[in-house]
Amino acid sequence: DTGVSQDPRHKITKRGQNVTFRCDPISEHNRLYWYRQTLGQGPEFLTYFQNEAQLEKSRLLSDRFSAERPKGSFSTLEIQRTEQGDSAMYLCASSLSWGQETQYFGPGTRLLVL
Amino acid sequence: AQKITQTQPGMFVQEKEAVTLDCTYDTSDQSYGLFWYKQPSSGEMIFLIYQGSYDEQNATEGRYSLNFQKARKSANLVISASQLGDSAMYFCAMRGVPQTGANNLFFGTGTRLTVIP
Fold first, then answer.
1. Which residues of chain A register pLDDT less than 70?
2. I need a labelling partner for A24 at 20 to 30 A (CA). Which of A49, A50, A70, B41 fits?
3. By the 8 A CB rule, do A106 and B44 touch?
């Protein structure tokens, strides 16, 4: 059983560029979450999907951020017109929608905006 | 609103000793879940243990146990027989009430544990 995978693991970009991250959840998990973690802080919730439906978005998710999960499997998170403040670790997690609903995390994508 | 507080920025423990990492939470919900995650320097969040708000017994998973005191709103993690590989950041987290759609986790600021040989 493979865990949650994320690609790329590291991304360096220049301010103003667009970036896209991919997350592949655990195969039988119907829920998928995106979090952002800055240095010295715990992860902060961005958005989550149940199957292909985006059910909740944080106020942290500005209009420059968009997330999709087109077929209820993998998800992409796109940041348009990146700013230096977007530099962070972007974590993806997946879970079932019953039982403990434990979220299992991927290795994260470290973004550095120059 | 949910809030998680971890008051210990850093902790040291001697190898093979036990250590307790503190976590207090604040919520007005009756139903909630509490989680502990370990984050090594590689960055991945590793799930350790879960406690439901209605669980009457403290959760245990191998060397990890959760000291759940509902009236005090505390959910401390106890690691027994510490190993060098336990050195990492540890995060306490709480999940909101699923019925309201708040399925996201709220995290504390973490505790950095260092195991000394």
1. 1
2. B41
3. yes
Q: Give yes or no for residue B102 having a pLDDT over 60.
A: no
- Calculate how close chain B gets to A83, using CA atoms only, in Å: 22
Decide if B14 touches A, using CB distance below 8 A.
no
- Which member of B44, B98, B109 has the closest CB to residue A108? B44
Contact of B91 with chain A, judged by CB distance below 8 Å, is answered with: yes
Please state, in angstroms and rounded to a whole number, the distance separating the CA atoms of residues B34 and B108: 11
Per residue in B24-68, pLDDT (tens digit) is: 999 888 888 999 999 999 899 999 999 999 998 999 999 999 999
**B72 CB-side CA count, 13 A:** 9
Q: Which two tokens stand for residue A22?
A: 């991919």
DSSP, collapsed to helix, strand or coil, labels residue B47 as: strand
Distance in angstroms (rounded) separating the CA atoms of residues A95 and A70: 17
